[in-house]
Amino acid sequence: MSPRTDLVLRTALVVITVLVIAGLAWLLVQIEEILLAILIAAILAAGVAPLVSRLQKIRWTRRGWQLSRIAAIVVVFLAIILALLAVGALLVTPLVIETQQFIANFPERTTQLQTQLEGLHTKYPWLPDLAVFVQRLPQELSNLSRFFAPAAGVAFRFLGGVATVITVLFMAFYMLVEGPAIRSGFAALFPRRERAKFEDVLDQIGAKFGGWLRGQLLLGFIIGLAAWLLTSLIGLPYPVLLGIVAGITELVPMIGPTLGAVPAVFLALFQPPVKILFVIVGYAAIQQAESNFVVPRVMRSAVGLSPLLTILALVIGGKLLGIVGALLAVPVAAALQVVVGEIVRRFRPDE
To answer: To the nearest 10°, the Cα dihedral for 157, 160, 165, 167?
Structure first.
């Protein structure tokens, strides 16, 4: 083969490789929402898989009768749905009432706060005139929502439809039902001697996904309960709403606890000064306990990802897919850590 022919072939190979990569990238962008649905379904399936396994092992009669895998999955999903309905029945009524009251009283409270700040600025002219900002608060909130819209567009489109949620639940259900068959099918792609190791890697990834999901739910429950207790003891209005907001925002990586404190601090501005102090100190204590005690013990054992890798994953995930990307970055990074760790061990010289 002449040098010129060799150069042409190498150039053609590079061009084809670049085109294939570009095509795959374009395809991934086109099916972005589908991939997110599959990933969330996989995480949900991994989260409830241990419950299914435990139910299958229980002997329900003296003769040793046990539930089949499908029956155990149905029982788990029914239990989850009933639990959500029960929690919803307990929380929906006070949540709706408190939300309606908050929306109805918002203009009055904003005017009251503006008057207080104007008086404070008149008494202390060297202070910044925050009353102007309060007057423009509705416009600022509108600008803020437009700022976050591009980053969160995928999240809102993905989570906006009930049909998508139902689809995710059905995919998670069938992932659990067909789990052993799917696992065996992928393992069959590998040489016989490598199948056991491949299945072990799948088990580790499933454990990471499930641990992350259970850890996130536990963190949201703990922080929401703490915020509800704090605002109830202080006597702040809408404690149920504030607790739910704190629990939900806890799921938002890095800035969740701060976001959850904003509504409480805003409502405290209309209370006596001592309550403002209690709210700020109380939420600061919750955030410190969350960062230094709760999260390390819940998530480190569940996912096992170092703080540096966690931060990098959150930044990259947020840049690529906005809020949803940041939310799913940790379990994906944990799965990649398992795969990369296995590759490193495989090619280590002393192995």
So the answer is: -50
